Each structure stands twice: as structure tokens, then as C-alpha cells.
Amino acid sequence: MSEAIDYKVIGTRPIRPDGVDKVTGRAQFGADLNLPNMLYGRVLRSPHAHARLTRVDVSKALEMEGVYAAISRADFPENPSDLGKNIMARDKVLYHGHAVAAVAAKSLICAEAALALIETSYEVLSPVLSLDEAMADDATLLDDECFTKNLPETPDKPSNIAAVMTLSRGDVEEGFEQADVIVEGDYNIPMAHQGYIEPHACIANINESGQGSVWTCTQGHFEFRALTAKVLGMNVADLKFIASEIGGGFGGKTTIYLEPLAVLLSQQARRPVKMMMTREEVFRASGPAAGTHCKIKVGARNDGTITAAKAWLAYEAGAFAGAPMGPGAMAVFAPYDLENFHVEAFDVLVNKPKVAAYRAPGAPQSMHAMESALDELARKLDMDPLDLRMKNAASEGTQAPYGPKFPAIGLKECLEAAKVHPNYTSPVPEGAGRGVAVGFWFNVGMQSSAEVHINENGTVTIIEGNPDIGGSRASMCLMAAETLGVPYEQIRAVVGDTESTGFSNVTGGSRTTFATGMAVIQACEDIIGQCKSRAAATWGVDEDQVEWEDGQAIPSPGVNADVKPLTLADIAGNAAKTGGPLLGRASLNAQGAGASFSVNMTDLKVDRETGKVDVLSFTAIQDAGTAIHPAYVEGQMQGGAAQGLGWALNEEYIYDKDGVLENAGFLDYRIPVASDLPMIDTQIIEVPNPRHPYGVRGVGETPIVAPLAAAANAIRDATGVRINDLPLSPPNILAQLDNA
Amino acid sequence: MKVVFPDHLLQHTGGEREVELLAVNFRELLLALDERWPGIEEVLAKCAVAIDGQIYQDAFLEPLHNDSEIFFMQRIEGG
Amino acid sequence: MGAFAYVAPSSVAEALAVLDEHASLGKRAQVLAGGTDVLVQMRTVDTQPRTLVDIKGVAETNRVDIGATETFIGAAIPSAVLNDNAELKALFPGVIESADLIGSTQIQGRASIGGNLCNSSPAGDTIPALIASSGVCVIAARGGNREVPVEDFVSGVGTNVLEPNEFLIGIKFPNPAPGTADAYLRFIPRTEMDIAVVGAGVSVTIDENGTCTAARVAIGAVAPTVLLVTRASDALVGTQLDDTALEAAGVACTEAASPISDKRGTVEYRRKVVAVLCRRATAIARDRAKLRVRTKVR
Amino acid sequence: MSKVQITSSINGESVEFLCEPQQSLMEILREELGRMGTKEGCATGDCGACSVLVDSRLVCSCLILAVEAEGKEITTIEGIAGEDGLHPIQQQFLEHAALQCGICTPGFIVATKALLDRNPDPDEETIRYWLAGNLCRCTGYDKIIRAVQGAAKELAHQA
Known about the structure:
The structure holds 4 protein chains of 4 kinds. By secondary structure, chain A is of the alpha+beta class. Chain A has 3 domains: 19-26 and 445-590, Aldehyde Oxidoreductase, domain 4, CATH 3.30.365; 39-125 and 198-247 and 253-285, Aldehyde Oxidoreductase, domain 3, CATH 3.90.1170; 292-443 and 594-739, 2-Layer Sandwich (Aldehyde Oxidoreductase, domain 4). Chain A has 21 helices and 26 strands. By secondary structure, chain B is an alpha+beta fold. Chain B is 22% helix and 23% strand. Chain C is α+β, with helices and mostly antiparallel strands. Chain C contains 12 helices and 14 strands. In chain C, the strands form 4 sheets. Chain C has a 5-stranded antiparallel beta sheet with strand order 4-5-10-6-7. Chain C is globular. At the A-D interface, helix 1 and helix 19 of A face helix 1, helix 2, helix 3, helix 4 and helix 5 of D.
């Protein structure tokens, strides 16, 4: 670990600026705004998983009293993108729950009644519901125009395989020949949902000329504006998007569903239109994580050195292309220094909702397969599973499987910490099993903007463009406090709307504290420069004779000026005389986000008569770079662990033979409840990212990756039986124990 | 400098995985590559790139050195 | 299209009059107690208008009456209230723990035994426990109350013997004889918040020698209705309730079960686990009964 | 459709409203009365975000008809803080960073209030089972449980 830097406020755990509003019920989420004269919008959804939509007629609904607008495909621009077709079905419906029409009415009850008056006819087609079915040569096609991308030559006939991707190095077959031990496995994971507690909701208020505003719960209101404008053929400058507080997203609120519908309905009705998905609609018609089928083969020498690794990864894209098979393929072997590997990945259309990002999209599925295979390899080699990973671990300078050499990374530090952690060194509880696994995510930078306003009393207002999901406003305030040298309490952070601050990409990819933080720091540096110049003007000295220290301007050492230091408040109070208000700003496209690695371990107990799993302990160790607000870093690690465990143990999309989701509610889509989990121990490893002023890496996504295999490996340890397919639900476990 | 393409771009480079080129920044590199394989610039513009180990989603103005290692890769987004 | 209406009668007679009027006019009425099933159904699978007849204002449906020989539990009492009744808990621990398993703390603030029974789901948590403890439904009807043993109340998935102009007032139980105790177990994948994948309610009576003299075993979520498994009882009576006897009762449950595969479990899984729960619940009931051999609980 | 007039007490204040017989208390609280602190996560009683106290008992406001609120005393999240500021439960949630997105927080705080009102010193297992009907997808519950433990301690200290 690198030397600890002595920060003043970074690393402390102050109360978040939005906290009081959230514990008192004042915070306004997507559905929490009502406007005068507002209507309620509802969506009619397809009762079929795959059908030609031969007729849709909203005219009778429009005649109903209390109904002010009704729309269907005819109201949208021609030549839609896939996103446009997902927002509103055109010639085909491609999943059960696909939107086919929408109405706006004076009440929810009235809107619901109006849906029954919309006339539709369908020519039902057979649904394609599994990867095997979809990839078969004679498969029913979702899209006759889908020709597999990235092949050396474009194929001459369409298929459900939207794209393939390969990654390779060395010679795998030769590598396997060098191996003393080879393990192979075949792993299936069904679709799972992000399960944010707040359903999608928005209000659009659009005038006759197509100008107006949209209030919405989103991970990125600038990108929602861009996507909505594109789907509707509108001008982004005519639309103001305001991000409400957001009740969880985890990737699921990086794309739009309701917004274009609300905009069109509002424009037609000339009144504000509020739309809220029901929980059932969230499950049926927003984007879950891809279901996968992964095959892994790994060979090693007796000393544990991996000589070759091979992966075949098929991802369900849902109704439209775009499964995260690329990152899945790039992540699968990322923690390891491999000479010979080959990865082949597929983006496959099936009649299920179009998948969306879910925390480290693509990585949990492929890495579950690899980390399970490594557990088997360690058993065959009779080697400690952490030692096996350490033997092959990537470190600074290792050529990553996806190309470049890694800069400073913290995998080995995490493995070392795990090896001596009490959850690893203590005896495994009677009847339980212990599993370990490694997680990884790239993290990204991208575009961010920030403005820093110094108020007349020296307090600071930060305006940034990233919705705050997990406490990022607190992190922004901390980084600004550190940079400016003023107390945290003196700073407020605000998420501006699309008209009040510069463009920012979504809150996602673990980028906000990294990239938006970088913008905030630069904006603060801009302020410091201005303050120095104001102080110089006040004192009548040159700018280079002023320094900024502990939140005040002081004369540089050796400068002979008999002046008192000027605090931020002093300079702000006198701003009118020295050039007007103080406003700092920065906008950037942040590069150099640092990859983050984790090691998870868990003790699980299995009831061999019922297959029920008890989670006895869980430890998450992760290289977070510098932890700006450690409590929220721990929170990300704990939340990711809970989501990963949920996916491992009970969460799954269950479809009937017609492609109808059978568990579209929190009763049967079983996310972990409080009594399912123990306290989740965390250990933050801080290997600073050299590309960030304070060493931030990005934290939010890596935590969901390792729990899947850690749980599977613990159950293998507890029962002696390797169960390849998730979830490790009681019926699955009991069936596998009986088969063994 | 060394420029490396991933498998899915080989269809655009006639199967060449690695080339040596000279350019002072990334923008010039793209132009040089496009000269060699007309049309590839448009494809590469949609890629991320790693320059000496650092991943850039958009590297347009990044300076390059004679001994730089450049890997094109798929863009990463996140949740 | 009709509309929703809500009435809250304050007596049995008034409630019956409302139900009768609707029945005679062919209008739909539905009795509402805690509403934890009714409201969900109204919002999802059955959105058609109806008159909701809230019986919580009818005193009898809120009464707990622990008599010398029998106990009456009103149909509309929330689980949370039952759970706070220590005397009731001591008498029928299995029945109360079944009520305590319905949903979350919030659900228990509303959900009632009567509602659980009238919802008539094969997976209803209280039903196996009510049957095991020989519960009898007290039904308000126009000619006076009528009584139906719980095992005869549910007629199919979601259906029961109530006429449209009747409603359930409560359940009565014979007070447990010396050496008698009950227990209920259900299996769910999580620790809370799920619908039973399998449930088993057991009541046993043992004599001073530890010999089982009477037993009732009822199993849930493994057939269209909750089953009273007499062959399981037969396997227990006359034994010391040892492992062999428990095993045999479990096998009888597996044989009696005719489950389906659905999103909550497979046929094979349910058949297997029903035996496990029968064994485990019987062991709990047995251990409780041993503590009561010489003492009548009331 | 004929609306029904209802009078309830909400956070100690007498409130009259009109509702359709099939509307839930949650819908009326939010869409008619503007008490937006009570959140909708599922409307089927599975997530606990809409938790309120009705005559001091913890319930999901999505599973009560608004007409059933006649004459009842309802406490929502807006009624938890006292005249002197935040309730210790709210304060402890802040100090323990027991919220990330915050959508589940009002429900958790109302449910915690109901727990500590009846059991001032619950153990971890009791807390976890009591709160099993409140779903949180962000925190993994760890910091929430610690906040509840902290609140119990704080309240005992104040008593």
C-alpha cells in the first residue's frame, strides 16, 4: 500500500447534505411532484411475447370523458431506432409488456379504464425464450434484418445473434497441452433485475410548440434529454430535464422508458402529464440484467500457474441488440496474468425485455463462471484458493486480457488482506462451507461539468450535473472542502437541471466521484486562482506574491506586505469592489479511471433436507483508491454484496412457456430482506489512482461481481457438490444434492 | 509506436493485428490509420483506446510518444 | 360499468342484510377484513368493481373468547393482535405461529386468520395449523350461525363453502386436552416475506408414558386444498413419537401430496420437503406436549 | 362514481378528504393530500416504503383503503420529528449513513419507531425480523441495523 496522505477532511464521515430531507420525507423523488392541472398517463402493454402488431387504434379511448390524449406508434417519427421501438412497439411486439399505446386522463382510475378501450390485434408468433433456442440454426427470428456484427464477413442470412466478439492471446491449445490439470464447466444464470425500490416516474409539461420541461428520476438527465429528443425527433434545446431525487438505479435508470410518452401526451393534451410505472411494469418492461450461458476451460501446472484459459459466453440481449457481452468478455480473465487465452462472446436476441446496465454490466455473469472454475482448479491442485489467485494475479505492468498494461492496481493487496482476515483464518463453522472469489470492474471517466459559486458570506455552492444516488453530494463537498481549505459545513452541493449547468454523462460506471469530483476540484482551483488575484488587488501586490493556504489568501513567504490574511468570506464580502461575484467552473472529459478489484469471502450453511442457505458471514475487501467518504464507500460494498448474494441465491426471472414473466413482483422476485443477511464486513484497501488528484478509483460496481461465485464456492465447500447454475435456490440445491 | 487491434476490428484491417506508426497525437494517428484502411476512422471513433495502460473513452487530443503502446478496445459503460 | 362501494356494518345482522341484498340483486359483494389479499387482488388479477363489506366493525369478528372447554378467535383480528395475546399463544402455539408467519410486521398489522382462510389459497399459512388444532368455522348465515370443520371449508383453489350471503365470524377450537400441543412450520426460500412453498401443521396428544394417543397432521401448498393426512396421524398414534414414527408420518405426507411445479417449487421438491416439515413440526409439537402431560393448559 | 368524505387525524391534525372507495390510503396521502414522504415501491405490501402507523399500529398504507381511515389516527414520516428537531431515529440514520438513495428511508424510520415504541432494547435478530418487510436495495441493511441499535441506545439514554 502506498503512503497515507494526510488529508484534512477527505476520509472523514460527515452527514450528507441531502440527509435531513431524506429522513423527514421532504426529499422529492420521481413520483413526488404534482403540478396544477395535471393528468395521469398509463401505458397499454402487449399481452404477447412475440407477435405482429397488426392494428392499434386509440380513437375510442380518446372519446372517453376525462381522457385528454392517447398515442400509439402512429404518433412517433418514422424509421425508429431500436430505442424508439422499445419505447413504443411498431410492427412487432417483442416481449410481454412491450408498450403499444398510452393515454392521459384526469385520474389514474380514468386512465386505467381508458386503456380497455384501445383496440389492438396481433398475429401471434412463437416466442424465443432461451439462448439455445435463439442460437439454433432454424430459430424463429426476432428481427429479419439482424445480421451478426463483427464477423470477418457479414453473414448472408439473418440470425438472432446480433454480434460476436473475440479476444485472444497466445495459443490456447498449446497452453492446455502444458497443463497438468484442466477444469471445465458450463454455467447458466437467468436474467435478474436491479430491483431499485423506486419505480420509474416522470412528469412532462410541454407547450404547443413542443417546448417544456420533464421532471424525472434518472441516473443522467442530460442523457435522458438527448435520448428523448432523439426518439421524438425534437430539439434538445427545447427540453429542460430536471433530475428528481432518485430511488435507486444500479444501471437500470440509465435509459428511458416513460419520458417520450409523457412528452407526447403532454404536448397533445396541453397539460402536465405524470407517469408512474407500477412495480409489475418495472419488472416486465424495464431492462433487467442479461441471462447468460458461459462455458469455461482452465488449465494449470501443478504449481498453480495457469497455462491456458478459454471462455464461451452467450448473453441474452432481450428484444433488441446490446447485451453487455463486450465488458463481460473483457472482464472474465482480467484479474489474471495469462499468456494463452481465448474468449468468444455473443449478443443474442430473445423475446424478453431489452436488458439494461446493472452494476458492472456483464462482469458478474462471466466472472462467476471463471471464479467457480478456479475454485475447482484449486481443489484439484490441492491448493489454497487465495494462493492460486495470488500465483496468477495481475499487478502493475501486467498486460490485461483486453489489451493494455495495467497501471497501479490493488488486486494483490486485496488478496493479501483476505489471507489474514479473520473471516478467512478462523475455523469454518460446523456444517458450513467457505467460499472466496475475486471481482473486477474497469470504471470509467467521461464528461462532467461543475460550477462553484462563492456566496457573499463565503459559503460555497457547488452545482453539478450528476444525480446523487448514493451520497455523491457529500463526496463533492468533501473534495471541495479539501481543495478550498474550508470546513465541510460551509459547502452545499446541488444537482442542477439541464438549463442550469453544463453537460454531464450519467451517474454510472462508477464515474461520479472520480470524474465529476475532478471537475469540482478543478472548479475550486479556478476559485483559488481568482481569490489570489482578488487578494493581490486588495493588497496592491502581484498575483504571484499571494498563496492560498487553509482557506485564506496569505502573502507568499518573503513578500514584505503588512497585511492580514483574507479568508474566503473576506474576499467574497468584498467581491463587488474587486471584480464581481466569484464563480469557478470546470468541464472535462475525464480519462484514466482506475480499475478496481475485490476479494469476497462468505460462510454459508446449507440445510441438506430443504436446500435452504443461511448466510453466516460475508466479507468484502476492495481496492477503492482513496475513500473520500468511507461510510458511503462501505455502503457501496455492502449494497453490492447484498445484491450479488441475492442474485446468487434466489433472484431470477421465471418465464412460462409463452414468455410471460411469472414473478413480476417483490413477493416472488426475492431480493434479500433484512433477516436474510448478517452484518457485512468491509475492508477498504486504498491504492490511490495516480490519475485523480485525490486518488479516487470508483467504487460502485465492483462489489456486485464476486459474491456470485463466492456463494457458489461456499456451497460447494459445504456440500461437496458443485452447482453450476444460479440461483442457488432451495429447489435447485436439493435437486443437485440428490443427483450427486 | 505500436498500435494493436482487437479481434473484432480485424475485419477492418485486413486481418492485421498490429502495426507500427508515427504520430504526435491521437488525432493524427487516426488520420494515418484511415489513410491506410479507408473508413476505419469512423469505426475507431466508436472505440475506447488504451494509451500506455491508461484507458481513454475519447483520446482525440492526447499526445503520443514514439514508444507509446496503443490498444483499441470496446467502449465500457457502466451501471 | 358499475362502481366500487364500501360499507362497514356494525352488527352481524346488518352485515348479513347487505350481503343478502347484493346476492338477491345479483350484485357483487366481497367481505373485507384485513384486506392484505383483497386489496392486492383488486389491484392486479381481479380489478372488477364490487361492494366491499368491511366486517371489522362487527364485534363478534374481533372477539377472543377463551372458555372452559373451547376457545373462539374472531375472524378479523390482525395477526399482530393475536401474537400479543399470551394466553392464546400458550394454548395454541402452532396456530399463533402460523398467523405470525403471514407476511411482514406491516402485513401482520392487518392480516387476519379469517381472511387467510377465506382467501382459500392452498398455501395459506394458517390453514394447516387450524386444521391440526381441530378448528371449526363459525359462519354467520341468515337462519343463524352454522359450523363447518376447517378441513371441509376450503373447496378448491381460491374457493370455499361460503354462500354469497354468508360470512365467517371466527374459528372455535376445543381447548387442548392434557398432553396436547400443536406446531406449524412452513418452508420459504427467504427468512420472511414469502408464500409457503410447503407447510405442515401438527397437533399431538401424548399420555404419561409418552405414547401418542391422538394426532392430526395437515399439509399445505402440496395439493389444491390443504390436506388433513389421516395416514400420517395413523403412523404417529400408538408410537413414542420417535424418529421411526416421524419418518413414517413424513412418508405418508409425501404420498398424500399431489403438488404442482410452479415458480415457487417443483413437484419433486414439494413432495420431499413436506416430509421434512411434517417430521420437524411433529417433533416440536411432541416436545411441547411433553411439558403439558400432567397439566391441562386451561 | 361517488366519492366518500372521510375525516382522519394525520400527524395530530384533523384532515378531511374525499376518496373513491377503492383508493388506498397511500394514494390519497400522496396524490390528494400531498404527504409525499410516504413512498410507493410496490403497492402490494411487499416493500414497506409506504409504512405508516394507524392507531399506533405499523401497516402498509397501500393495503388500507382510504375509507377505512375514518376516525383513525395516522402517523406518517412527516410526523416523526418533534418540535425540537429530528427524532433520535432520524438522527441515527444520518450519523450511521444508513441511507443511500433514501427512497426506503421513510418506511424504515416509521417501522423503527413502531419497534422501539414497543421494544426499547431489541437484539439484532429482532430488529432484522421486525424490518423484514422494509426492502432496501442500496445498503445491504448493515448500516440500517446499526442505526436502529444506535437509536435504541440514544432513546434509553434520554429516558
